[in-house]
Amino acid sequence: MILIRCPWCGPRDAGEFHYSGEARPRPDPASASPLQWREYLYFPANPRGEVTETWYHRMGCRQFFALERDTDTNESRLPGGPR
Amino acid sequence: MRLGPQPGEEIDRERSFTFRWNGADVQAYEGDTIVSALAASGRRVFSRSYKYHRPRGLLTASYHDPGCFFQVGDEPNVRGAHRLAEPGLDVRSQNTWPSLEFDVKAVNQLVGRFLGPGFYYKTFIKPQRLWPLYEQVLQRFVHAGHVSADTPRVAVDKRHAHPDVLVAGGGPAGLAAAVAAAQAGARVMLIEEEHRLGGHLRWGDATDLAALAELRDLVAATPGIEVHVNAVVSGRYDGNWTAVVLRDLPSGLPGGTRVEQLIKARAKVLVVAPGLIERPYVFAGNDVPGVMLSTAVRRLIRLHAVKPGERAVVLAANADGDAAVADLRQAGVEVARVLDARAGQDILRVRGRKGVQAVQAADGTTTECDLLVTATGWTAPASLLSMAGDRPAYDPRAARFFPSSLPEDVLATGGLAGDGSLDQLIAHAQATGREAARRAARLRREWQAAVPTRGHANGALLAGHRLAGHGLADHKLADDPLLADDGPVAIPELPVDEHPELFRARTHGIVDYCEDVSSKDLIAAVREGYDSIELAKRYTTATMGPTQGKIELVNAIATVAEATGRTIAETGTTTWRPPYAPVTLGALAGRPLEPVRYSPMQPWHEAHHASPLIAGAWIRPDHYGDPAAEVRNVRSKVGIIDVTPIGKLDLRGPDVPRLLNLVYVNKWSKLDIGRVRYGVMCTEDGVVFDDGVTGRLGPEHYLMSTTSSGASAVWEWLENVLQTMHPDWQVHITPVTTAYASINVAGPAARDLIGRVTRGVDLANEAFGYMEVRTGQVAGVDESVLWRIGFTGELSYELHVPAAYGLHVWETLMDRGRDLGVAPFGVEAQRILRLEKGHLIVGQDTDGLTRGFSAGLDWAIKLDKADFLGKPELAWQHDVENGSGSRLVGLQPEDGSLVPPEASQIVDGPRIVGRVTSSRMSPTLGRSICLAQVEAALAAPGTRVTVRLPGGRLVGARVTEHLAHVDPEGSRLRV
Asked: Do A3 and B238 touch (CB under 8 A)?
């Protein structure tokens, strides 16, 4: 399975993690329209190429962290870090 | 016929035995494959082809030989040209009836013109009612062995491995690369498909055999190389995560059944050295027994001392064809004619049906013979490279594909990379091996540097630590011979020999031997419009059989190219996907290891004949024989239930109330110490996610309970909120689901029972009221938590005691409450009790679309709170959709003796307007009771609805005033 670089534990097999979704700005719930809110809920950008996502190291350090992953090659890096 | 001793032969003439072939005895030596022994006995016909049932013999004498799949004992589809013969094996041909010699299904050949490509898309379609009959008939014609359902299951554990360098292929290049990598300090795993290392050197000349011996000795003498023969690298996935399959392992079962083992190997660098696979030539009669490839005859002669025929014609386009001619002559075979394709000679067709009788050359001459040998070219097995993202490029000069762009962690060597002398190939492989080790060392250092809590390469730091899972105990960090700082190793370029492009003669022949697809079929497919290689493949099924393109793909591409007028490079290849070679399901399944969770009271439940309920990973007591009696006992006396699986989270910190306010739909800013509140959580789409009670034990100390199936999901949810939304909040969560054993004591006599076992807590109603929490000593156990909640609707205390004392507390309660009539109750009784009280179960009375106001939770949802998860959607559900959507209601079937099955639909004419979500016979009321989801328009109390039972019968039911059927005011809770 793909290797996920946990910032605390190093590169680990993806099976240890839980994918927690594409990192996107959360609209202000007080002022967002239903359309804006539901776009946030149901329509991730899902690009081909680089995407920033959140992963949770379920079977490890139990930390949530952001990861930049190339959806084409599955190479990943921590934001600002080396590949 | 058996020849005299051959240099390099792999049979042991001292060990002779027999096995059975279609009932007859066949003599073999140790080291023979099933097919080499059959060939030595003079047999030539081994199977019938898939569609036309044409007689087939041996073609390649290797694992992939398409005419050599046999049933061995209860094992189907055994590769007879690879599987070693053993004493007493029972080998049978497949797909033949009544016998191999006279096969009735060969009638297919007569109707061949009606069985063109894709005939199954066009025939056997109408009339549809005859499909079962078609299936039965077609099944008899399917090419496969048979599996016995009685075959005992053998579970083979999978293995995980982390080699620095994985070398796929044990020929000269693979061996040299493995040794060079190991000498450079890498941990190497070497995988070879055949039974012995050496590749084509095994059937080579004296120089080859000498080089082979040297390489084998070197591998054995070099530390750090794990060697597996009769194994295959079956797939390469992201990050060089590879599947390695070890074949033909003994199972311990009688009859010699073999099993396979899967190794999941995460290799830092993969070296692909599979050699080249010889390609057949397409011409009329190219599948007649007696037509063989040059490697086949050389294997038979050299490895097994088998004379492949008496009189041969050879079509040679390369040096291997010439070498085959020499080997044939040395074996006493009369070589009647050599057709040199390099000089433009070619064959036209083979005459003979059950065996070669004559060969007609393109120049018109006919030569009588019983053996035709072709050496027309080589195919690069580029599958692993393609799985790594490479798109191999075709070189028309060399008539084969080459790698074009490999990722950093994959290298190719051997025939895949080029040609040249043996010395040149070995030099290339050695450099490749060294470079592979260098890249692996670099990667290893990078991974270690990526772990911030560990110091860099520092012996002192590591000396005191056992770092599990990294194998660093063996690793020599201080004296790494090949440092990642070195520059890349220079890998010499290999020459690429010219080779004539020979795919098809001037006649048509078989392209895919397994699937019985001829060049004519492929051309017809193109004419029908399937003019790309991907479409032609799927329409004709060419390359979709057991050989998966290894010997037929390039010929198929060439035929499609010819039919479309494009070049081979323009036509391209199909996509190679794992597995590269067949894998048994048993290897993939391994041994199922599913953890099972028991509460500490399990021994008591078992001893008292609890009927087990599987609830996720937990085993819980469903009931102890009579759930209705258990319900009555709770309502009239006192019952105890083991609720240990309930999720429990210990929350500490000054910001806990802010967290609770955010995740629950109700208000939590003001919860006094010693009080408990029920809460419901929704996700951001407003859907009900979990519910439970949370109590405040101290100024900054809370205990949250969740549903048992939601325990880990809620913990993750809370951590998500704290880590990603509010890292500024100070809250610490400790999961204590299994740290506490939990017992719910419920019934009118509950206070009496608790009073007998508790110290340090005033149990009077005025001192310890409903929805309050205390800590004290229960059955001698300090720090026990007691809270008064009301899932069952009776006076009840839920105890949470440190898990090690769970059984003791349970037994104490049972003992001290004997005269009070205490009895255990299980999950089933609890479900009935809560249903009588109209308490919803998240996931039972709600589903993945049920938002808060559809779950009877109007009273709990506080839309005037500033923000909580799910608020926007709940606000819209309330304000915008008011009056529409679904509602949770209590339902009373008109016939109280009828218990509608859960999920029964509620209908209004042809429309579905709801469903029954929970349904039981109530022992307390003596009639059936339900909860249901119905459209809002039908949710008013007193409304009559129609329930459709499975089977179609319609019955009536009425919406009740409250969700609760028993004690809707809740007075029994508050005593």
From this structure: yes
